[in-house]
Amino acid sequence: MSKYINNPVFGIDVASEFSIVAILAPNGEIYRKSFRINHTLEGFKHLASEIEKVEKKFNMKAVTFMESTGVYHLSLFHFLSDNKFDVFTINPLITNSNKNFDIRKVKNDKKDALTIAKICKFQDIKLSSRFDTDLYALKSLCREYYKLTDTKSTYKKKLSNDLRLIFPGYTDIFSNITSKTSIQILKTYPMPKDILSANKDDLINILLNSKKGIMYAEDKYSKLISTSKSAQIIGIPSSNLFIKLISDINIIESFETQIKLILSEIQNLLSSGKIPENIVVNIELLQSIPGIGELTAITIISEIGDIRNFTKPKHLVAFFGLDPSVNESGKFKGNNNHISKRGTRIGRRALYAVALASIRCKRNGNATNSVLLDYYKNNMNGKSKKVGLVAIMHKLMKYIFSVLRSQKLYEIRNPKLHCKMYVENTTLVNVA
Question: Which tens digits make up the pLDDT trace of 286-295?
Answer without folding.
Answer: 999 999 999 9
